[in-house]
Amino acid sequence: MRPADQQTTENMAPPSPLRAAPVLVVDDTPSKRVAMKAALAPLGHRIVEADSGIEALRCVMAEDFAVILLDVTMPGMDGFETARLIRERWQSEMTPIIFVTAYSSDEIGQMDHYAGGAVDFLFAPVPPSDLRSKVSFFAHVFLNAELLAARARIVQETADQLRFLTDAAPVGIFQTDTDNRYVYTNARWSEITGIPAEEAVGHDWDSIVDAKSRADHAVALADGAALRYRFEINPPGAGPRTVFATTCAVSDGDGGRTGWVGTLADVTAERQAQAAQRFQAQLLEAVGEAVIATDLDGSVRYWNAAAERLYGWTAEEVRGRLISEVTVPTGDADRGNEIMAAVAAGETLSGQFSVRRRDGSTFMALVSNSPITDEDSGALSGMIGVSADITDLTSAQDLLARHAAQQTAVAELGRYALAADDIASVARAAETTITGILGADGWDARVIWPDEPDTGPGEAATGTVIRVEVGEAVTLAVWSEHETPLSSHGHQFIGDVANHLDFMLQRAGANAQFEHLATHDPLTELPNRTLFLDRLHQVKLSARRTGQPYAVLFLDLDRFKFVNDGLGHDVGDELLIAVVGRLRGVMRPSDTLARFGGDEFAILSPNIDSELTALTIGERIQGALDTPVQLTSMELMATASIGIAVGDAETDGADLLRDADAAMYRAKDSGRNRVELFDEAMQRQAQDHLDRAAALRGALHGEQIEPHYQPIVDLATGRIIGVEALARWWYANGFVAPDQFIELAEEIGLIDQLGGHILQQACLAGLAWADSSTSPFMLSVNVSPRQFVSGDLTSTVLGALAETGLDAECLHLEITESALMSDPSVQATIDELRGHGVKFAIDDFGTGYSSLANLRQLPVDILKIDRTFVSGITTNPKDRALITAAIDLARSFGLTTVAEGVETPEQLRQLTELGCDHAQGYLWSPAVPADRFSGLLQCSGGQQSQRDPTNVIAFLPTASGDLP
Question: What is the rounded CA–CA span in Å between residue 213 and residue 224?
Answer without folding.
Answer: 16
